[in-house]
Amino acid sequence: MDKQQYTFPDNFMWGGIASAYQIEGAWDEDGKGESIWDHYVRLPDRIQNGDTGNTACNHYHLMPDDVRLMKDIGLKSYSFTISWPRILPEGIGKVNQKGLAFYDKLVDHLLEAEILPKATLYHWDFPAPLQEKGGWPNRDSIEWYGEYASVIFSKLADRVELWATHNEPWVAAFLGYGAGIHAPGINDATQAYQAAHHLLLAHAKAVEVYRSGNHGGEIGLILNLNHLIPGSDRDEDQAATQRVYDETHSLFLDPIFLGKYPEEFFRWLGPNQPHIEAGDLKKLTGTSDYLGINHYNSDKVYFDQFGGWLKARLEPYSAPGWGLTQMGWGINPAGLKAEVMNIVDNYGHPKLMLTENGCAAVDIPDKDGFVNDLERIRFLRAHMLALHETIEKGANVQGYYVWSILDNFEWERGYSKKFGLIRVDFETLKRIPKQSAYWYKNVIKNNAVTV
Description:
The protein is an alpha/beta fold. It is built from 15 helices and 15 strands.
């Protein structure tokens, strides 16, 4: 049977991504301050196997080698995040020049390798000294973040043309301050919603700082948008699905694109809804040059009287012929198509990037440490094809980034889950590209997915 090739638009941005705390290590070196994750991993029973990000992949010291591996794969772009406390050890005030120099060198190495640097300001490693002052629920966090953003733009915006403010603010707010299963480990609905509002205002502040500098690049926001399917036609399941959608989608999309918060959802929240000052929503409107979508899975949603403040229960949904990922997440490539088209249909057809997509698989290395990860390749191929469908339907999708370029520290799951295109032996820190890395190299080379 002849194979079919699905070609992507010219100049499509094929990338890979990682985040600072998950790969850098060097948690207390060269003047770096402590983050809420540096504190959280020391607490008992918070992280699987007692793992920490103290060393992680040691990317801080092995960065040039990692960039060479990215070049070997043929990445067009690498999306990295910057550690706020590595730059400002106290969160504000004195700048740590050694920390800034690391990212300066990273950008130079990427440009020398002809890889476009894409920088994200915040991926959850909030400075511990500022958490002691209340963290994201404190409205002062908006100005703290603006100061940090200004330092970064002054150093890197002459060479970095693609920026994001926050990665997955829902996770920072609702797993960190709501469920308490991420740093800083607070279990308080009111703090979670207030944090979400301040995260959005901090995003807008950073965008204001960036645009006032006339840097000429693009800056956006990255949201985790998993697909939600009502468990049945029952009114209760439909309403529960809408509440989960409003918390994970509307709470962030509506202010940015429509200049409002979802009113019915706020009525549901009652005393848990955030305090919003006059003019806040006006500050948020139109603050994303593009929207980054992180997409991994689909869930069915059921009404559940005992399902937290949303009265909802989520169950992983997989399309026929698919199982679950190693994370226990449902696999449903059509869910990615649905999420992209939802944005296109409801939010003014913005410029989009798929900024994270990938899967944790049961990687079994051979005697040489090589992993033939056909399960991951199948996942990636199916999602790339779903994305291709959205482009054919008119979605303005500019790029696709695989999570992750390296096996890394997966937050509360420690090193037990592997997402990387490149295997990391965490005893020796040796890097070995997996079969998926070679497969992705061909995708990039051909600008096409072959089936």
